[in-house]
Amino acid sequence: MRNKVTIVGAGLAGPLLAIGFVERGFEVEIHERRPDIRRVPQSAGRSINLAVSARGIHALEKAGLWDAVSKMTVPMLGRMMHSLTCELSFQPYGKNATEFISSLSRADLNLALIHAVEARGVAVHFDSRVIAADFKSGDLRLRNERTGHEAAAISSVVIAVDGANSAIRSEMLRHTRLNFSQDYPEYGYKELTIPAGSGMERKALHIWPRGSYMLIALPNIDETFACILFLPFEGPDSFQQVELLGEVKRFFKTQFPDAYAVMPNLEENYAASPVGSMVTIKCTPWHAGGRFLLLGDAAHAIVPFFGQGLNCSFEDVTVLLEILDRRDADWPRVFAEFEQARKPNTDAIADLALENFVEMRDRVADPGFLLRKKVELLLEDRFPERFVPKYAMVTFHRVPYSVALSRGLVQNRILEQLCSGITRVEDVDLSMAAELIEPLAPLELS
């Protein structure tokens, strides 16, 4: 029993974690409440494209999967902004073409991970719902959703990677002293599609920023685009208003005219897609009884606006396995060290993701914002060890999220001083920049 691990959740981080355990000699089984996606179509709300970057790539490389997964991705070199008058402007993500994020279908990645974990001998039990957990013995009670049959899963430890609606976390709330908070923004989302042949630039994330709401589109390898409309639930320019009879077509034609022009099935597509909700979840402790651990969205769900949900969860996997290698299955110690290492960083990325939503929807078209971005790249070029843009720290490096958050605040103050009174990047006072940046400690970049 000492070497058996039960993982709850076969979404993304669960199978990746299972591969890491198998490579270390553990017996592993996975239980997933949803049906096998290979025999049942994806449910609505689960197909949003993912943005894979440095942290996620590192974890996939560790598992020997990145070479295969990379073939399913489309590189996005920057943001393509769409104005109300259909003017386009491109904002690169990084300092050069080597810094980009990759668009990837959630379903394609999920399938690849399930195939990979099963190829390593791991049994994945679908339609298997957790109905009770014993935090002293480590036992789970499970029910097969197709047959109604109930059974126990007995193992040394249980790792819950079962998402923002975690069944294990719900059991912890009932039976342990779990501190828990959840925050739902006043915004929802709908998933839409732009068919192949639109003529849109494929190596970019497209954004239609409109102040209090936005539309985005990520490229797929089949030349379609996965679109996400973010709107308030209620009020003016909201889902409530748009869904009135005839408003969908008018709203898109008025607010996103060039997107409307390449969405021939908009009204049918819109009607078939439910409005989804987003949530930020924070809780502590992440472990119970030395036998149970929450990981990924089960412990720290975040909104998607920094493209770090997947990357953060995969980094959880990396950190947990590194601690396990040091502590040799001393599970209470492993779990405690894991939470101590990760919680400050997951809290930080939760805050950064909310902040980035404001940036994406109403700052990206502002001339002052665009000037700051150019100045950031200039400072990174002149002071590469001490000044790295916050976006780059989060996305292109594995700088701890908490460091990116705190250092980003300091760098913002530096940018404010350097950009005050100028309108061109050529007018930056580099002598002042050197004085302001010198006190920053050199960064360890990975």
Explain this structure.
The chain has 3 domains: 4-49 and 105-183 and 279-355, FAD/NAD(P)-binding domain; 187-277; 366-437, no CATH class. The radius of gyration is 23 Å and the shape is globular. By secondary structure, the protein is an alpha+beta fold. The strands form 5 sheets. Strands 6-5-15-16-17-14-18 form a 7-stranded mixed beta sheet, sandwiched between helices. Strands 8-2-1-12-21-20 form a 6-stranded mixed beta sheet, with helices on both faces. A 3-stranded antiparallel beta sheet has the order 3-7-4. Helix 1 runs parallel beside helix 11, helix 2 (54-62) crosses helix 11 (309-327) and helix 11 (309-327) packs antiparallel against helix 12 (331-363). The chain has 16 helices and 21 strands. The two termini are 37 Å apart. It has helices at residues 13-23, 54-62, 66-70, 106-119, 167-175, 239-242, 247-255, 257-260, 266-272, 297-300, 309-327, 331-363, 367-382, 390-395, 401-419, 430-437, and strands at 4-8, 27-31, 50-52, 74-76, 78-82, 88-92, 101-104, 123-125, 128-133, 140-144, 150-153, 157-160, 179-183, 187-194, 205-209, 214-219, 225-232, 276-277, 280-284, 287-288, 292-294. A hairpin with a 5-residue loop joins strand 5 (78-82) and strand 6 (88-92).
